[in-house]
Amino acid sequence: MSRQLHTAPDTALILSGGGARAAYQVGVLLAIARLLPQHAPNPFPIICGTSAGAINAAGLAMGAGEFRRSVFSLARMWQNLQPEQIYRGSMSCLMATGAHWLAALLVGGLGRKNPRSFLDNAPLRDFLAGIVDFPKIQANLDCGVLKAVSISALGYSSGQSVAFFQGIAELEGWQRASRIGVRTELNLNHLMASSAIPLVFPAERIHREYFGDGSVRQIAPLSPAIHLGARRILVIGVAPQSEESPARQHTSGYPTLAQVSGQLMNSIFLDSLETDLERITRINRTISHIPAPVRGEVGLNLRPIEVLTISPSQPLEKLTLPFKREFSLGMRFFLGGLGAFRRQGSVLASYLLFCGPYARKLIALGYHDALEKEQQLRHFLAAEQATSAVE
Length: 391
Known about the structure:
Blueprint: E1 11-15, H1 23-35, E2 46-50, H2 52-62, H3 67-79, H4 91-106, H5 122-131, H6 135-143, E3 148-155, E4 161-167, E5 174-176, E6 179-183, H7 188-194, E7 204-206, E8 209-213, H8 223-227, E9 232-236, H9 257-287, H10 292-297, E10 306-310, H11 329-338, H12 346-352, H13 356-372, H14 374-390
Parallel strand pairs: 1-2, 1-9, 2-3, 4-6, 9-10
Antiparallel strand pairs: 3-4, 3-8, 5-6, 7-8
Helix pairs in contact: 1-3, 1-13, 2-3, 4-11, 9-12
């Protein structure tokens, strides 16, 4: 049977990392589903996900034949989520972990098994195993509603950002400075690796190397989509986009551990995406002044990339404090001691608050923010459909 993409093959969706904040992405996807016909296939043949965004990407990829249904499934998953489905956060588990870390420090790391992480995410593996049907990804590739799916992770030995991708036969891997693209058949290990926040969750072994959260050292988050053939990209971020730098605040107290950790989390999950978006804007502006024939004559292998970004209209950490009781007693004790329930420390809590009520708040915000850009989205989707018709 011949393969023919039913949607524009150069349209990509990028779902960034962000822990529990990734629920925001589902709200945006729900708004897109509203703008499309009821049984429309996935409008994004290229899907790239990182960290928790990789889980959303896998859900879309396995349900690519009917976009609205797959988005509704993701929404139900997030709306019914409980922290116990992601990690073990009971008082006894955290005390055992704390004792393990303390013992390792006291004996100088001479124990047989040194600590691997602060939290045990074994429940997440069981949870994902029950909801992600990986063979459906290949089936959707074979029938033409999907071109490629990419999941990024960091190799702890090599220090490389690796984009593991599954796609049509014509696609090839790539290698750039500190980042590579590797063709593979995606499985549960890739999702576990991509979402393994450093120190918080344990690394995942894939073949000969251990991998962690894909947002770490991902200096070019848009790169996998471009290498997979994207000319048009929708980016769903989890940090507010602002043209102005935030005003410096006068503070007298020393920053809490939660505040410092939150800024480290922001550096991992947010900064590289913002930088890459600025870079591609500059490149597009430069290319626009160079005629295509001239670019061909001098061997300038660059093409303009249309990018639409949808991001939160308000800081997501401000939404966490009403839901702190959703954490287990052990996590409230642990995070409270770090200062995570204070105004300046709530960033850390926003990444770890995997619970239905908080997710519903983020989904509602994502839906609202997407509809605020309804005309831009309609133009983006209409252009995709026009390209599909030409194909």
